[in-house]
Structures are given as structure tokens and as C-alpha cells.
Amino acid sequence: MTIRDVATRAGVSPATVSRVFSQPETVAPGTRQRVLTAAEELRYAPNPVARSLARRRTGNLGIVVPDIANSFSAMIIKAAQQEARHAEYALFVTASEELVDDEERQARALAPQVDGLLLTSPQASDACLRELADIVPVVVTNRLLDSVPAVLTESAQATGHAVEHLHALGHREVAYLAGPDGYSNQSRTSGLQAACARLGLEPVVLGPFPARFSSGVRAADLVLAAGVTAVVAFNDDIAAGLLTRFADRGVRVPEQISVVGHDDTALAEMVTPRLTTVHIPAAAAGATATQLLIRYVRGDDSGVRRYELPSELIVRGSTGPVTARST
Question: Looking at residue 163, what is its pLDDT?
């Protein structure tokens, strides 16, 4: 059935039928009801592409992540996709490869093609984010900017718990492998340094490193050269790289060195030994940020503009007490 069939059945013009589906508020209630009844009788459904163009809507949402291959990004994308699908939106996904220029370029390219844009842990300038927010509704994760709605995963306290856990096991020489500069790394660094200050420890900070498996492989020798008995990594990917390189060098975990990651991705359960890590609620962050974005796309900005999601330490087999061999 076509729009002309509906118009004939309802006794109106095709233009009136079009307005009923694109701008219903411009059509008299009685006429609108006749058109909807005729459409239902004829089982007519408007073309979704044409309907979106008429409403100046695309039916699409966009998300920019630092690295699609990163386990944490994958969890965010999956959660965002589920929420988008539930709300009948398609999701466009792109990655910046942790390059600021690429992130800004990708975001600007997506903005005109989507109804809303989600940026995860963005490193773009404040000016760029505000410029994007003037073009399309924008929500960010793990970034503080007064004018932009945000979902934050607060890890400082849980990172402090990781340091306390290591201290209780007898560790006094601890290294931290920093990740890319931004809210997440700042939160983890502040939690680690505050805990170390309370416990009288002097942490060795190495990096920053890209949040990738290869960074852990590269950093492992630096960690061993530093002579520490425990290492806290920015994320599970880096921690898994550490475990691999330590195994290659015959360094036993946790007998000779303990390892803690961040994120609690599926990777933490796959490596040997299973990884002690700080659980960061990635799926909840992705779902909450997408729900917030959809709310803004639909014109509802009356609710909460910033959410903080808590983290917690998960203890597994990669941490253990200091032994004579590890000292």
C-alpha cells in the first residue's frame, strides 16, 4: 500500500497523510484520526527513511571509543548497542586509536549523520566537545565538562583498596603502569598515591602507556628492572601483557611478583593465573550513557546530568604474599 491509497481511503490529500506521519501536530485531530484508521485498515507503514528525513531525524546514534580491540571498549559498545536497539536506533561505531586528532575528526564526521553522539573517555579539547554539543546531543563517559552530560566510573577508592591489599600481603615496593592521560588515569593515580601515602609507601610510576596488551609486554622488563614486588596496571590488557612477558622470562606470578589490573574484563578470567583486578562497571556505564543520550535526543533534559558508578576490588590468583624469593 502507498500513501495515495491511504489518502483515497481517508478522503484527504497525500500531503495530509504525509503530515500526519511527519508533523502530526499540524493536522486537525479528526482528520488525523481518519488517516491513522485508514492506514491501519490498509496495513500501511511509512517508509522509515523518508519518515526520519521528514522529522530531521536519522534514527542513528554514534559512539567513538579509544580502541575497538580494547576489551573495555568492547563491553561499552555491546551495552550501548543493546540500549540503542531497544530504543529502535542503529549504532554507528568508530575508534580514535587513542589519537586526539583522529578522535576529533571522527566525531565531527559522525555528528551530522546521527541524532546523538556518545564519546567514551574522550581526550578532545573542551572547545571541540562544546562545538560538537552545539551540533548534536553529546554524552561523555569518564570526562568532566560542566556543559556536557557525563557518566563517570569512579575508581580512586577501589585502586586504594588494591594498594591496601598488596600492603597486607607484605609488599612494600609497588609500581604503577599509567595509562593515557584523562579522567580514568587521574582517578587511579590519585587513589594509588593517597593509599601509598597513608601506608608509607613510595610507588614507582612508569608510563604513560597506550591501554593495550603490547604495552604490558613492553613494560614488563621495566617493572623487573625497578625491583618492585608488585605492580598495578592501568587496565587488564596491560596486565595481561605483563603476565605473558613474565612467563617468557621465567618470572612466576604471584610467587615472585604480584599483578593487579583494572576493568575486570573477560580477559581477567582467561589469563593464568586469573587476574586480581579492580572491577569497573563498563557495561553499566555504556548502558547508562546510552540511556542518557537517548533521553537528550528525545528532548528530555530535566533529569540527572551526571552519574557516578562505583568500582570494587576483585581478588584472584595473580596476587600473593611476599616470599623470600620475591625480595
Answer: 98
Q: For residue range 259-308, what is the model confidence (pLDDT) as tens digits?
A: 999 999 999 999 999 999 999 999 999 999 999 999 999 888 777 889 99
Please indicate, yes or no, if residue 33 is contained in any of the structural domains.
yes
**Domain termination site, one of 54, 73, 90:** 54
Q: Quick one: 160 and 276 in the same domain?
A: yes
Q: Say if residues 158 and 181 touch (Cβ distance below 8 Å).
A: no
On whether both 193 and 231 belong to a single domain, the answer is yes
- For the chain, what's the residue count? 327
What CATH number does residue 254 fall under? 3.40.50.2300
In sequence order, the β-bridge partners of residue 278 are 262, 313
DSSP string covering 166-205: HHHTT---EEEE--SSSHHHHHHHHHHHHHHHHHT--PEE
Our CA dihedral for 318, 319, 320, 323, rounded to 10 degrees, sits at 90
Per residue in 79-136, pLDDT tens? Answer: 999 999 999 999 999 999 889 999 999 999 999 899 999 999 999 999 999 889 888 9
Q: Domain limits at 159?
A: 154-281
Count the helix, strand and coil residues of the chain and give each as a percent rounded to the nearest 5: 50, 15, 35
Per-residue model confidence (pLDDT) at position 47: 59
* pLDDT higher than threshold 80 for residue 69: yes
pLDDT tops 50 at residue 217: yes
Residue 64 and residue 120 in contact, taking contact as beta carbons nearer than 8 Å:
yes
